[in-house]
Amino acid sequence: MGFVALALLGIGAFAAMVLLRVDRMLWTLAGAALFLGAAGYAWQGRPSLPAVPARTQVAMQPIDPQAIALRDSLLGRYTTDTAYIVASDAMTRVGDRQAAARVMLGATAKLPRSFIAWTWLGTTLAAEAGDQVSPPALLAFRRAGQLAPEHPAPPFFLGMAYVRAGEFRDARPYWARALALSPQGTSYRREIALRLALLDRLLASGAVR
Q1: Which of 10, 14, 80, 182 has a 20 to 30 A CA-CA distance from 104?
Q2: What are phi and psi for residue 66, nearest 5 degrees?
Q3: CA–CA separation, 63 vs 50, rounded Å?
Q4: Are 38 and 10 in contact (CB under 8 A)?
Q5: Is 151 helix (H, G, I), strand (E, B) or coil?
Q6: CA nearest 189: which of 147, 152, 159?
Q7: Any idea of the CA torsion for 62, 143, 188, 69, to the nearest 10 degrees?
Q8: What is the pLDDT of residues 10-38, one digit of tens each?
């Protein structure tokens, strides 16, 4: 059927040129184009294959708006550091965790003393490792903590990485430290305190090890 359709296409193109009174000097060009198309189809065409609907290969992964709001309150917005995070988010949304981590690797190369870049590098490396706190991710979080030892973001996001890995007991001391480092009255202190309380309740229930 594929070759029949190709022949009908050629006949239709010839008839169209006659009806439209196309200059005969252009017939050679049109014929060459049709011939090249036919040659390509004869070489690579597989008309016997059944038709299948097109399927996208991209798995969209929405990011929780509340998580973004908490991150913004901890790390800020509209800075050079966070511009990289926005770009990394775009890669995460289309399911490309490796690209998201590469963006943050570029951020730490450009801004080697940015605890924000190192913190989010740790987050993306953990995600790339299948939501596990891999040695590279742990190294990135520790570098962030060295650069900003009194900021709650590095321990909080390291704790979050452990929670996503299902390692709840490992997460607790980091969230406790993040809460201790959070100034009174800040919105993110309330959010961290709530998460720590829920984690403690979960641990006390014995539902996790």
Answers
A1: 182
A2: -65, -35
A3: 38
A4: yes
A5: coil
A6: 152
A7: -20
A8: 565 555 555 555 555 544 555 555 555 55
For residue 112 the two structure tokens come to 């080697």
H-helix or E-strand containing 178? helix 168-181
As a residue count, the chain comes to 209
For 185, the 3-state DSSP assignment is coil
Angle at 110 between CA 106 and CA 114, to 5 degrees: 100
> Which is higher by pLDDT, 17 or 184?
184
User: CA-CA distance, 120 to 81, in Å (whole number)?
Assistant: 10
Whole-angstrom Cα Rg for the chain: 29
Cα–Cα distance, 69 to 61 (Å, whole number): 17
Cα Dmax for the chain: 87
Q: What is the pTM of this model?
A: 0.71
Chain mean position to CA 58: 10
Distance CA 46, CA 68 (A): 48
Which ranges in 21-114 belong to alpha helices (H)?
Answer: 27-44, 65-75, 80-93, 97-110
